[in-house]
User: Fold this.
Amino acid sequence: MKSSQSTPAYSTGALIAVALVGGFLAAFLIYPILYVFKEAFWVDGSFSLKFFAILFKNPTYLEAIGNSLGMALATTVATAFVAVPLGFIGARYSFRGKAVLTGLLLVPMIMPPFVGAIGMFRLLTRGGSINLLLGKIGLPAIDFMGAGGFWAVVALQVLHLYPIMYLNVAASLANVDPSLEEAARNMGDSGLRLFRKITFPLMMPGFFAGAVLVFIWSFTDLGTPLIFSYRRVVAVQIFDMISNLNANPMAYALVVVVVLLTATAFLVGRTYLGKRGYEMLSKGASARAERPAGRRLTAAIWLGVGLLLAVALLPHLSVLLTSISGQWSDTVLPTTMTAEHYGQAFHDPMAMAGVRNSLLLSTASMFIDIVLGIVIAYILTRKRFPGVEVLDLLAMLPLALPGLVLAFGYVACFRNTPLDPRGNPFPILIVAYSVRRLPYMVRAAVAGFQQTSVSLEEAAMNVGATPTRAILKITLPLIMANLIAGAILTFSFAMLEVSDSLILASRIQYYPLTKAIYALHQVTGSGDFIASAMGVLAMFLLAGTLIAASVLLGKKMGQLFRV
Assistant:
């Protein structure tokens, strides 16, 4: 992330900042991964492929890897078919209510998919609401949970993840130079041929950025398969083996496979894009005029997007209905309504402990991210050190690295140390949350620094201010909106972090919010209803933070979801 405003200063303070930030990332990002690789390849004091030989001969593990790959590929392809047309419409057409529609398209992001799975399970089973409704209108039942729940998991992931790809695609299409498409039209290209030959190659970087995130997220999703009891995937297999690492070290080999597969997906795509070498000479200098959509096209857009949203919001609706249902059995809709589950959520010891713990953990991790994010963004935009690109790569790595891998690495490498999560997991949970959400803070802060001229800081230093005082008094107030947006995103996503919470917190008194929701879901009787009530509250929390971040960042919102 180079900036024309950068100044090649090698001050002692800057060097110390680089050392401290680099040390933090080395200790809590690189070391856990290296430790897992060591345990996987170093057996009985020497290099060995023993665990991998066992892994690739075991049909259970092979099936889990195949299922996870298939699930990730299916989710990515389906998400692309949803997101690309939406991005094209959003970037190329103007129509009545466009701002409202664009906002509605992001609504599915306001709930973690594993929470939606709690409600969707009631809708998709053989005796669920959808099949009961089909029976009432004389249509045959549909086996949504076929293949063990594979397609149910894929469907829920697509409905949750398409906004991420949509944000990337829309931003890339907006930056495509219109003169290139106009030149192609003059040569006789139009319609799908124009899109395939010119537009799609030019928007490929943004498309790929979204596709990589969707693929990795789906491949390593832990919460949704757990809720649907679809255990034949890599993430759940690793989760089941964590409590017994000494007796069953195969988990190390599985985690290495996850890292290698996700890294390969990222590198293959990068290499492919580099070889194609598509580039716009004008760098987007030509402004694009959005084409006004006529009445028929506007109606078609609203109808199509409305149908998509009706399906995409089913998980949210099902969780809401579950949270207020007094009785819901063998009927399409609840037969009675009640608000008592919310009261139970506020009085249930596990639920309240989960809320308190998550507030504490998320607040602490947010402040760590603010400090680290400002320092890293300042170094990337204002200083030039040999190897500073490595710092940029490390800061962004958590976006491409599965949370499952990091959480497993923390359990493995910090056993029998003060950070052992089997005791008090709070310290390592704070670290895990801050590492996982650091890219959001860095991206938000970098955008602010790049928009603020370094000459303002230089002017302050010319009248006697130290560099630190110039940053604190001049630059930070000017980029406060970016910092607030990054902070609320890191806080809210930490509150609803799934993999770290499920893996690192093993004692009830230390359960974060998402682990408490999962535990309540396992309780027979009212557990599902209380869990759904907590899920609705979490949904409103994330909705508020996403709206606030969108208002503060505007069109730069999509940049936070790029690897």
